[in-house]
Design goal:
CATH topology of one domain in chain A: Immunoglobulin-like
CATH architecture of the largest domain in chain B: Alpha Horseshoe
Number of strands of chain B: 9
Number of helices of chain B: 18
Shape of chain A: globular
Radius of gyration of chain A: 31 Å
CATH architecture of one domain in chain A: Sandwich
CATH superfamily of one domain in chain A: Immunoglobulins
Radius of gyration of chain B: 25 Å
Strand order of the largest sheet of chain B: 2-6-8-7
Largest sheet of chain A: 22 strands, antiparallel, barrel
Largest interface: A-B, 78 and 86 residues
Strand content of chain B: 5-15%
Helix content of chain A: under 10%
Number of strands of chain A: 52
Order of helices and strands of chain B: HEHHEHHEEHHHHEHEHHEEEHHHHHH
CATH topology of the largest domain in chain B: Serine Threonine Protein Phosphatase 5, Tetratricopeptide repeat
Structural class of chain B: alpha+beta
Shape of chain B: globular
Number of helices of chain A: 11
Largest sheet of chain B: 4 strands, antiparallel
Number of domains of chain B: 3
Oligomer: heterodimer
CATH class of one domain in chain A: Mainly Beta
Chain lengths: 994, 477
Amino acid sequence: MKKWLKKISVFQLLVFLSCWTVLAQEITVSGTITLQNGEPLPGASVVVKGTSTGTIADADGNFSLNIPEGTETLVFSFIGMKTKEVPITSSSTYNVVLEEDVYALEEVVAVGYGTMKKSDLTGSVSSVEGDNLTEVPATTLAQSLQGRTAGVHILQNTGAPGATIQVRIRGTNSIQGSNDPLWVVDGFPGDPNMLNPSDIESIEVLKDASATAIYGSRGANGVVIVTTKRGQAGKTKVDYEASYSIQSLREKLDLMNAKEYATFYNIQQKNDTGEEYFSENEINNFGEGTDWQDLIFRPAPISSHSLNVSGGSKKTQFSIGGSYFDQDGIIIGSNYNRAALRANVNHDISNKFNITYNAILSKALNSSKPSSGSNRGGSLLGATVAAPPTTTPYDDEGTYRLLTTVYPFSSNAIINPVAYVNETSNNWSSNRVNANLAFTYKPIDDLSIKISGNVRNSDVRTDNYTTRLYPGSSGSASVGTNNSLTLNNDNIINYIKNINDKHEFNFTAGFTYEQSVYKSLNGSGSGFLSDVFETYNLGSAENNNPPSTSFSKWVLMSYLGRINYSYLGKYLATVTFRSDGSSRYSAGNKWGYFPSGAIAYRVSEEDFMSDLEFLSDLKVRVSYGESGSTAIGPYSTLSMLSTGNRVFGNELYTYFAPSTRYPGDLKWETTAQSDFGVDASFLDYRIRFSLDYYIKNTRDLLNSVQMPRSSGYTNTIMNVGEIQNKGLELQLDTRAIDKSVVWDIGANVSFNKNRIVNLYGGQDIPGYSYYLGVVGDYVNLLREGHPMSAFYGYETDGFDENGNYKYKDNDLSGDISIDDKTFIGDPNPDFIYGINSSIKYKNFQFKLFIQGTYGNDIYSFSLLNQTMDYGFGLNTLREVLYDHWTPDNTNAKYPRISRTTAPLMSDRFVYDGSYLRLKNVELAYNIPVKRAGLSFFNNAQIYISGQNLLTLTSYPWFDPDVNSSGGSSSINQGIDYYTYPTAKSITFGVKLGF
Amino acid sequence: MKKLLILLSILIGITACSDILEEEPKAVAIENFYNSASEIESAVLSIYSPISNNNTFGAMYIAQMEAQSDYGYGRGSYAPVSEFQGLDATNIGRVADFWSSFYRSIRNANLVIKNAPDAIDVNESTLNELIGEAKFLRALCYFHLVRNWGDIPLRNESNMLELELARTPASEIYSFIIQDLEFAENHMVESESVPGRATKWAAKTLLTEVYLQLERWQDARNKALEVINSNKYELISVDNSDDFYKIFGPDIITSKEEIFYIKYNSTQSSNLAYFIHHPGSPYFNGAGWYAHYTDSVNNKQIKDWDYNDLRKSFNLYYYDISISPTTVLFKKYIDPERVNAGRNDYPIYRYPELLLFYAEAECRMNNGPTAEAMEKLNMVHRRGYGKNPYANSNVDYDINNYNMESFIDLIFQEKMYETIWEGKRWLDLKRIGKVKETIMEAYGINVADKHLWWPIPENEFEYNDAIDPEKDQNFGY
């Protein structure tokens, strides 16, 4: 258990204190600090109790310390170990064995602008270890968090490598603004996607207002604090980890073969035109035909490597490392790879000054195959599942077949998916830097002043190219570059005041400044003489679109303060305050004020509780606070004119006009959150239990208010809406067996109920209106009293006498109109959960990780498109052929096969999206390096694991973990629209320590 | 501790100045624009944009009109339009987009008309030219709105931001249009700086059609005559059917027939050709939605169309889309070298139409065809047959064979041949009150009353409390 990172501040403090010399009569004590198994503990600390006199053990665990005469007790401690107090006797040798502290009550966790002992926390903070993050190979950190901790709902928008991940902490707060949490990387707001999960030491998720309010206007959606790996004094350690995975499509769809296809379209043609299209002879000659899924999907590898070197002396500690991650997607041509280099150096200049430098450089490349959306085969996945099995990708001359003209009834939108994967490319590359320099000055013992600066720079370039071989293309290229530069300055003062060993105050105050500038340049052209240019010769294009450039800047400055108070470690209180000034808001609304307060009571510290032997720890917590959400982009309150162009003659002329959004007078969105929590441990911490109940009310929600279209504007934004989230989170960790077999099992479950309290004038807010081939309508609706993004549509009521869907006439008007629509589903889960189990026996370890959601619905545009659109020669599921309405089969699953079947946005395509997934199963073997004579290794592990090997779900398309239109501010939730499917994989890996 | 306080106060002192939080975008805003002639001009150009979009004049508005003609049919989602029984949800959505586009252009015009007069350094005639152009475009938008929706909210420069605005009776809308056009024809430029910018002649042509709509025959005839007498326009001679691409071809920048067109090129292209072609045809480089089609045998108008009329083979080609062996598709707009979509311009007013406006007004004014009226009709007719438009020919109609009624029928027949796929037919039939009769004759379909007026979009009355969704909606919706 390498939890040293979390104790870094304590550690620094100790190192620092050890430099103080005490002018008194001294004696020398020495000894060795070891683990229970006799291994030395380099870096463990020894301190004279109640003083700052101390030292740390060397590489062999030995220490030597001068202590004042009359010293009574030495305190031995090490990160992840139980602290031990040893009374001073006449002996001068103290060999001390430290025990592993599995439950890490003394652990220090990162909180906003500082750290805290876990036992002193008054807010709701959950931690995830770095080790857990690398279990499942993942491109993004957010993916690795799925199911790991209560209250954090991770939904992957698609299964594509590098795809965006939607993160919601304690539900959805905002309609218009981002619902993403604030990511803080090594102390500053940062970009978690720079990092490979193997670069991470630990993650803390701040959930309640007492924890997040210190982040003021950006805390409302929760805060995720990411800490990268750190070094510690002692022997230099070299750790190398590598893994290789093979992914494959979880499940192919059961589509019609060529013969069935021809049979099917004869039925349709007969129904619609009166004549069959294929002759009996033709049908008999069709066999299986082409399975287009086999031409697009492939088994695909992931490889991952990381190297970390760490160590240091009393004055200087370092951690330097590099990592590389390379994932091919299961759709041909898709790939994501990233290399990250990292360095962290911490140095005491003197006993008053400390300097820390931390830098991350990251290079990522993503070749994507945009696959989702569209209808009648207009997208890659849509075409893959809709392409006629009776035909092939290439015609007789070897050029790509135009699938629009295969049959007279062929869809005019269908693309050739093979041509698409081969002849189009979408490449995104980024070079990102995140560097911090912090300078700490300690004029006196309990006071520290920390001034730090952070530079975060991101250079992104996108290159999209369609070759001349792609049907209908004469070569088209577009290039975009953008740069975003964020500068931060934090000035934080921390002062600790202890009164009579009873009252402990910890004051934090500070001023921070952050500014961010974004610039972009885009160009495109089409009509190239040769494909050899790709995107690198836009000037030679026959048609050049005018280049476009943009600029935006925002500034945020803040004052913040926090007081932690502890009385005998029993009664705890925290008060925080932050004031944020943002450039984005209207004059007069620029400043927002975000207070919070929390109290906690460690009942188990009371004398009257000491009889309860089974109870190791019991703490109750209550907090209330307000935090904000930025919600709008720069310049949203100005009546800006945007540029466009229009053809006159044969040239483009520039014009200026307002956009379709009328600018409003805007201020912050504010979330007020109350949290009630209980943390309890039993049986000497073998059972640890944490429960939180919260109520979050978000007010002044930025609400897109529709304007009558005759105004020329589409909408404006006002601060009017209100949303409430209520929820319950449970986390349970136990050591079920603690013998030669050690079995740890943990589970978390989170319930969240979301309700829209108030919208502007009670106006509904419909989601995006999707134009599917056979339906054009919205499906998500925001209405007062209902959960966010609930599905709204018609209710089917069997088939009519012609085999078309009947719908319920809910308003009893006699006909079916929009007034018959009702709520037909809810994409928000009742609860989400994760279960984690680890069994260790001798050198073997067996791990299981299960994760899932319950009670959420999926609206499947994929299935709607695939099984209802009959007039256009699209392939469909095999079951449609065998179970559709005919006069003889009126109780069928599908309607009559006719292009006149005009389904509505109905409950027919609402599916239960609940699933339970065996996310990871792993068997690891720790090679006994000493016994095997591999003494240059400290440790060596090999493992084999499987990801997504089992998924229990009733959802009949590729995968239930899907959210095609997800995004930080998307209200179009729970939709599956030809989404890139999730893969399953088998992984082999090694972990070596030198 | 004292040092600490000093440090703190320095930190706070540095940042007390809150100018840092003022936004300075590298962009212009309404409040500081419309000052110079070039700024106002760039704002005037913005009026052209919304209506030029592919969801309006860039194709969809025309596609909507063409699906409700007596000479062709919509396919797929346009098929319900060709049934003349009112609009289904998809098509209701489409016409709602037209509404939004027209009103967005109107907003952009209102901004110019409101703010331009405050400009400091612009001389009055330049200012009036630009305001005139804005008023012309505003009138054009209202003219399309009022003919399709009837009574509509009248948004002018003074009530732009009033959320609640009731429908104004059509008659008042027409008065407003005329008022705008009178200003426009008096102040706009004589000749355009670049093809595609409206001139006073465009304003006069629009005014002619407005007068026809209002049955102000003499005003219409006089206005049309002003345009004819300007001698700015002439008919282009053709020898064979492909010669019509000298007028409609994708490479044509302008022609002597152009009174007012919406322009497209290879970067900002129109979807007109997308709607009419099959990807297997040679006319659109492997693309096309063949969303519209007609039939050379089963459609009476097409069947009766004389093959000697070069416009017939120019406009139509056989293509089997598995509906009938005699299916024909349209090809007024082609772009065989298509890169994105088509480069074809959309003609809002072409000289032949103005000539037919004149012929109609002159005839109605005189309660029968005059030689002048007949000559203008014959000019268009001759050219269609590949004859010299300005010399008598053997295809000329004889005035003696026509009375007022049959001459008017002749004009609209000629106009159908001339302006097929220019989105004119439906509104023409509506203007002369012959929608039901014509469609009954062509297809045996009784046009539903609800098909005559498009519904006020849901996103208008939902957010405009002055329009009641029950009381104020058009019939049938």
